[in-house]
Amino acid sequence: MQESGVIALACAGEQPVSCIRQAERVVGHVGDWQILSEQPALHLLELVFRPSQISYSGARLAELPSNAGRITQKGRQTVTDTGCLFYGPYVPVPPGTYRLQVYGTSGSISDARIDVAYQRGTTVLADHPLPSKATGVLLPEATVTVPEGVHDLEIRLCVSNGDVLEAHGYSFRRIEP
């Protein structure tokens, strides 16, 4: 994917819709796609990635990178290690105001946090601690302002040794341009 959010695909012997689904398996179903060009025998597609929402839940959390915890039927769960239950997806997003919500359950928490970052994680746009003893919603709503030029947005849920938490998913959706 280019920084502008354009993905170029060549689909031999497949319908354009099938190619789009394959691309979504890589970057996640996070926005609208527009076919800019197509040739009859070989489908040459340029898909413009315009995410208005990034969301992962349940088994889809396993598609995101992780360096802590384990995969469960409901999402990702802490074990005894320190690290991030998930991070990524490293996608371009247009500037605007977004709302982040995180779902799951927690027991004892010492330092579990969720943040929204870009520039390979060096610029943090929002950082929120997660509560102990929560069921259903870990972060009800957090407003995040995304500036111009964000080409690699990631959402990270990181935990410390001893945190008891199971993440079921998250939603990051644009509420204002």
Q: How would you explain this protein's 3D organization?
A:
This protein is mainly beta. It has 2 domains: 6-50; 53-176, Sandwich (Jelly Rolls), CATH 2.60.120. Helices cover 7% and strands 53% of the residues. The protein has one helix spanning 16-27; strands at residues 6-12, 31-32, 42-48, 50-51, 53-57, 70-71, 76-77, 83-86, 89-93, 96-106, 113-118, 123-129, 135-146, 150-159, 165-176. The strands form 4 sheets. Strands 5, 6, 7, 10, 13 and 15 form a 6-stranded antiparallel sheet that branches. Strands 8, 9, 11, 12 and 14 form a 5-stranded antiparallel sheet that branches. A two-stranded antiparallel sheet has the order 1-3. The longest helix has 12 residues, at 16-27. The chain is globular and about 60 Å long. It starts with 5 loop residues before the first strand and ends with a strand. The relative contact order is 0.22.
